[in-house]
Specification:
Radius of gyration: 36 Å
Distance between the termini: 98 Å
Low-confidence stretches: 1-6, 298-304, 336-360, 406-410
Structural class: mainly alpha
Largest sheet: 2 strands, antiparallel
Mean pLDDT: 79
Order of helices and strands: HHHHHHHHHHHEE
Number of helices: 11
């Protein structure tokens, strides 16, 4: 880009956000932060060698102290170069080099100034002028403050957050269920936002605290056991933590490990939906009778299919939901006796013995089917266990090991 056309560049048209999110009325912390992040994205649309070159023009938006956390080279805005002077007697080669150097200095200044001016214009358009009045020069109607100073003013004047509100936001992040089908970067961003907020209220949290928040959530998923063990041997910085577990999530995704977890979550959620659906229908269509309002019998804890004799159509719908619920419960908690037991395999080592004789059963258990104990004696009942189930009335219970009637002893 030559110096002759540098000033004519429409930088706003080249920005990622050609128009910043409009803030109507008094700014809040969230609105200020959103607009600041959009300015950061726009500033990084153009390459430069300033400030080390790795973060492009981000130094126009960040304060020098904040930029120093990203780069060991400070971001220094270029000064407008003075008119070119070539001393008498300068050789043609040196004169050419001086001209090229001056042209590059002018180009760099024009580019930096043009990007900064475009960003300021966007900020003026994003906020109502009443909230920027303290920064606007009355004669030029422009803002002479740097962009970082503009945002510092907005945060100080309007973006106040109490310590109690901060702790509420931190607790919300910690309590929120972690969906591993969503990239972990979403969690990292929430924690980084929390870290920014902590700095804003002058109660900064350390990188180790950020790691601890994220690590507790990962431990609760019971999915990253091996990766957590490996993490203990690594250089434990927040940046390394994010990279390590981002890769771990991708590896699990490639191996199909996250699909199994998603299936388990889906089954649990579906069971809850069925229960809620049955309860909602009961509440809306079944008025309690005087008998139902009496205290329940503490020994009567069996689940029975819900009914509504007053409306057969509703009764059928309730039964369908109840049957679906029981099927899902059996799917998630399969009866232990479903494979027939050791006796059906012919005894130890396949030598016959007890496995060769017909199994004589005496009792029926809703969870385990035909076995040596009844529903009241069961020590490992499944969810929804029916203590009063019998061979004649299994109440949708297990049919494992149930023999023909003539083989069952009285």
């Amino acid at each position: 880009m030559s110096s002759s056309n540098a000033k004519t560049v429409n930088y706003i048209e080249l920005f990622t956000f050609k128009e910043l999110t409009k803030c109507h009325g008094e700014p809040t912390y969230e609105k200020i932060k959103r607009i600041e992040n959009q300015c950061k994205a726009n500033a990084q649309r153009f390459n430069t060698t300033l400030g080390g070159g790795q973060h492009k023009y981000l130094g126009l938006v960040l304060s020098p102290a904040r930029y120093a956390l990203l780069s060991g080279v400070p971001f220094e805005r270029p000064l407008h170069p003075p008119p070119l002077e070539i001393p008498a007697g300068t050789t043609a080669a040196i004169a050419t080099a001086l001209k090229e150097q001056h042209t590059e200095q002018k180009r760099l200044y024009d580019e930096c100034d043009g990007i900064e001016t475009a960003l300021k214009q966007q900020i003026l358009n994003a906020f109502d002028h009443d909230y920027l009045a303290d920064l606007i020069d009355r004669d030029t109607q422009s803002i002479t403050s740097t962009i970082s100073e503009i945002f510092t003013h907005l945060y100080t004047a309007y973006g106040r957050i109490s310590l109690a509100e901060f702790h509420e936001r931190q607790k919300a992040i910690e309590d929120e269920a972690l969906d591993l089908q969503v990239p972990l970067t979403v969690l990292w961003n929430k924690i980084d936002d929390l870290k920014d907020l902590a700095e804003h209220i002058q109660a900064p949290i350390s990188e180790q605290q950020c790691i601890n928040i994220a690590l507790r959530k990962l431990i609760n998923t019971q999915t990253f056991t091996e990766e957590i063990k490996k993490w203990k041997t690594l250089n434990q910085t927040w940046a390394n933590f994010k990279q390590h577990f981002r890769q771990a999530q991708q590896d699990l995704r490639d191996l199909g490990g996250l699909q199994m977890q998603q299936t388990q979550i889906f089954q649990a959620n579906l069971v809850n939906e069925v229960i809620e659906g049955v309860q909602a229908l009961l509440d809306s269509h079944h008025a309690p009778t005087a008998e139902e309002q009496t205290p329940p019998d503490p020994t009567a804890n069996a689940i029975v299919p819900p009914t509504n004799p007053a409306n057969p159509a509703i009764d059928q719908h309730l039964m369908q939901n109840f049957q679906m619920f029981m099927q899902l419960q059996n799917l998630m908690n399969p009866p232990r006796g479903g494979r027939g037991g050791r006796g059906n395999r012919g005894g130890r080592g396949g030598r016959g013995g007890r496995g060769d004789r017909p199994r004589i059963v005496h009792s029926y258990c809703w969870t385990h089917g035909a076995c040596s104990h009844n529903g009241h004696q069961c020590r490992n009942p499944a969810v929804g266990h029916q203590k009063n189930a019998t061979f004649e009335n299994k109440m949708n219970g297990s049919i494992a090991n149930c023999p023909a009637p003539q083989n069952r002893s009285a």
